[in-house]
Write a structure and sequence with these properties.
Elements: H1 10-19, H2 26-36, E1 41-44, H3 51-62, E2 75-78, H4 82-95, E3 103-106, H5 112-121, E4 125-128, H6 130-138, E5 149-152, H7 155-160, H8 164-173, E6 179-184, H9 189-198, E7 203-206, E8 217-223, H10 228-241, E9 248-251, H11 255-267, E10 272-275, H12 281-293, E11 298-301, H13 303-306, E12 316-319, H14 326-333, E13 343-349, H15 354-364, H16 375-381, H17 401-405, H18 432-437, H19 479-484, H20 509-512
Parallel strand pairs: 1-6, 1-7, 2-4, 2-5, 3-4, 5-6, 8-13, 9-11, 9-12, 10-11, 12-13
Helix pairs in contact: 2-3, 3-4, 14-15
This protein binds adenosine monophosphate (AMP).
Length: 521
């Protein structure tokens, strides 16, 4: 099947050729003809499958006729995060080079004024996160009664992030006669219910099993002690040992750990940025652009911030924490090994991670091999007891390629000790992983690297070298707030340490005084 068979306009076909695509991906081949027939579509597909073009290409074709009116967008695309929304805009820019369409991005964290001006000019395509869209609506700057086509993208993520009530409100504001395209990577019962509610006689298209991981990804578990400093130490050695590391995404379960780990790695000489929901939009954009351009080869991220990001060639994914939700594992490691490329995914596993790990292996339907022996081997070496000495093991599950992948470089500048550790754990000159991920850092003496002592960075560190220091966004409704809280405990990023119940340990004195009830005369 070729793009020409799908019914797309000539202008769109030219843009597709210019983008270098030779044939449609399965989701595109299945969905585009139905979209052009103005059918509702329920698309079950993950990011990385070409699903964005599956709706942007036919939308461009359909929008060639007609004109936008002030404050009344013709089409509306809802995305759960700002980054995903921005990515959809990039798609319209890429495929819409031959069109003169007004595309507006309505997301939180940036000023209303520019967005108001864009809406006033008339919008063919409005791409928005739900919270900011409702803000504009409530301020009277937007009417949704002209929407002919509605796209709800990443519906399962919308659910996780607590956006469903907002989505339900928005859907009530768009005409009943609209066409609706609904995409989700997974179809839990609540999403099925929404699909039933929002879609009229939809065409269901589905690609790849939602729980599948790409076969091009080498997945390994890495045994580690459970203390933060032990995990950071293990991660550093892992990164330095990866000779083929071009760029890597490092996932943490908690936002605060993202910031902490980024600072720690930076202080150890790695060129690393951070991406999490508490950073303001500018800092998020800088971090992401730096990583995308290759300027910053390592990015520490939280699940919500990194979900669905299209970074085509990520060589490595490191799970600093085993994700609590098994589907997050699939999403995380899906950042690497895209489009048939080779990818590597390492997951640090400590004691207490067994249940999460078991859930992941059940979901993906296969056991994940250990890199250097499991946790019992770790106990033998004493590392689990907090002794983070570089381990010496000849055994590897990565096969014959392993020795070649490991650098045998100098040890004086690294944490790997000469002759003691695996070659790759020395910070070697030949190690591309070490070299590319590290900025020019002062060589350290071995005494500074006494592993039992926490690295200098792990005390509060002032500023990150690459990413702008994370700062809190101005609190506002919509995405910013939702990214922080999430309803009913579903939100992945809410797990930010113990939250005091009620007033916590502190109860003001006036509340402890006995209540005096006066009797009425
Ligand atoms: P998405 O799933 O929309 O995030 O797309 C993932 C990546 O696939 C993006 O980098 C697209 O540019 C790319 N892509 C989309 N359609 C095609 C295609 N037909 N052929 C090759 N690459 C594509």
């Amino acid at each position: 099947m070729s793009f020409a068979d799908l019914g797309l306009s000539d202008k769109v076909l030219q843009a597709v050729t210019a983008a270098g695509y030779t044939e449609p991906t399965p989701i595109q081949a299945q969905a585009i003809p139905h979209v052009l027939e103005r059918r509702d579509v329920l698309g079950i597909a993950q990011t990385g499958t070409g699903k964005t073009a599956a709706f942007t290409l036919p939308m461009l074709t359909m929008l060639e006729n007609g004109r936008a009116r002030a404050r009344m967008p013709r089409t509306l695309i809802l995305e759960p995060t700002r980054e995903l929304a921005a990515q959809v805009v990039e798609n319209f820019e890429r495929y819409g080079t031959n069109h003169k369409l007004n595309v507006a991005l309505i997301i939180g964290g940036v000023s209303f004024a520019d967005q108001d001006a864009k809406l006033m000019r008339g919008t063919d395509v409005l791409i928005a996160t739900p919270g900011r869209l409702l803000d504009h609506f409530e301020r009277g700057k937007l009417l949704l009664t002209g929407v002919e086509l509605l796209v709800i993208d990443e519906a399962d993520r919308m659910l996780d992030m607590g956006f469903i009530p907002d989505i339900e409100r928005i859907v009530k504001m768009v005409p009943f006669t609209r066409q609706t395209l609904f995409f989700s990577a997974t179809m839990p019962p609540e999403i099925e219910r929404l699909a039933d509610m929002f879609l009229h006689n939809p065409q269901r298209v589905e690609v790849a099993r939602p729980a599948s991981t790409a076969t091009t990804i080498v997945q390994r578990l890495v045994a580690t002690g459970s203390e933060g400093h032990e995990k950071r130490d293990r991660l550093r050695r892992l990164i330095r040992g990866e000779a083929e590391l071009n760029n890597g995404l490092i996932f943490c379960n908690r936002k605060r750990d993202v910031a902490l780990l980024q600072k720690s790695l930076a202080s150890h000489g790695f060129n690393v940025a951070a991406l999490h929901g508490d950073m303001d939009q500018r800092a998020r954009t800088i971090a992401l652009d730096g990583f995308r351009s290759g300027e910053v080869p390592l990015l520490v991220a939280s699940d919500v911030a990194a979900r669905g990001l299209d970074i085509p060639a990520v060589s490595h994914v490191f799970n600093f924490d085993v994700p609590h939700h098994p589907e997050d594992y699939v999403h995380r490691i899906g950042r690497t090994g895209r489009a048939g490329r080779a990818g590597n995914a390492f997951t640090l596993v400590g004691r207490g991670d067994d249940r999460s790990l078991q859930a992941i292996e059940t979901l993906i339907g296969q056991p994940i091999p250990w890199l250097d022996g499991d946790l019992s081997a770790l106990a033998e070496s004493g590392e689990a007891e907090g002794e983070t000495r570089t381990r010496h093991r000849g055994r590897s599950t990565r096969g014959t390629a392993e020795p070649a992948r490991r650098s045998r470089g100098r040890s004086a500048s690294g944490e790997g000790r000469g002759g003691e550790g695996r070659g790759g754990e020395a910070r070697g000159g030949e190690s591309r992983g070490g070299a590319s991920a590290r900025r020019a850092a002062p060589e350290r003496s071995r005494s500074e690297e006494v592993e039992a002592a926490p690295p200098r960075a792990e005390a509060p560190v002032s500023v990150a070298p690459v990413a702008a220091a994370p700062s809190r966004s101005r609190p506002e409704r919509g995405e910013d707030r939702r990214q922080d809280r999430g309803p009913r405990g579903r939100h992945r990023e809410e797990d930010d340490g113990a939250t005091p119940v009620g007033l916590g340990a502190h109860v003001p004195a006036f509340l402890l005084r006995p209540a005096v009830v006066k009797k009425r005369k």
